[in-house]
Amino acid sequence: MPSSNSDTPPYVGRFAPTPSGYLHFGSLIAALASYLDARSVGGRWLLRMEDLDPPREMPGAQDAILQALEAYGFEWDGKMVRQSERLDLYNAIIERLWQAGDAYACDCSRKQLQPFAGPYPGFCRDAGRDVEGSAIRLRVPDREYSFIDRVQGEFRQLLDQDVGDFVIRRRDGLIAYQLAVVLDDAWQGVTDIVRGADLLDSTPRQLYVQQLLGLPQPRYLHVPLIIQPDGHKLGKRYRSPPLQPHEATPLLLRALRALGQPTASELNDALPDEVLTWAIPRWNAGHIPHCRTLAEAQLR
What is the DSSP string of the chain? Predict the structure, then answer.
């Protein structure tokens, strides 16, 4: 459980779905973990719609996500934030990084980069490309970034060797996740980030952006991903079934078990909000399985 001493800011958590599809069981596990982690210490739980990629957004997905969260008993604090409403801020920060020499224009195409596996080879790093019609990459330092995840333990990454200079604005003008998520978490005062383990590898990049912009570093907790029999994670790309309102209680109980949390037989007939109310005081992040993936078949 996060520290609650007087030097620690009040807990602020969040759930930040992407409207490229409907919520599924993997989404539910991430939402449930972040919700219980926040509510168990009397913290706030915010909702942010990460709608930065209109071409990939599924029509009606935003409304469907909100309806699913409500049907499953989740209540968020304050007004939902949409990243699409903050584009001016993102672009202002990119301009600041560009002017400081921390970012540069890159006109490399996917075809050009295809033969080079691994980190970006740095073709445009010192080429002085024109910003117009180019992607913007952030220069990364030759240093290791590490953090202690509350479930996964210590995680280390050499940014220059493992990632390389990464894109913060695409050639088509769309803002990259790695920049927007850091700016929004800082703006919203998020102290604790609870999300899926597929984003564990992204965290060192986000730590670097936080350092570069002088922003606070949240605590992190990455929950295991649910893996289907074919080896793919549960997700929108692999036809994972969307959450159905009539399945709310059994799926919440199944998600609790996946997170290593207790359940009780009397909850089988409970309403979704009653399940959440029962689970909040019993939440123990230390019981979450210390692994990056869980087999879906083991949770049935």
Answer: ----STTSPPPEEEE---TTS---HHHHHHHHHHHHHHHTTT-EEEEEE----GGGPPTTHHHHHHHHHHHTT---SSPPEEGGG-HHHHHHHHHHHHHTTSEEEE---HHHHTT--SS---TTTTT---STT-EEEE---SSEEEEEETTTEEEEEEIIIII-SEEEE-TTSPBPHHHHHHHHHHHTT--EEEEEGGGGGGHHHHHHHHHHHTPPPPEEEEEPEEE-TTSPBSSGGGTPPPP-GGGHHHHHHHHHHHTT----GGGGGS-HHHHHHHHGGG--GGGS-SSSEEEGGGG-
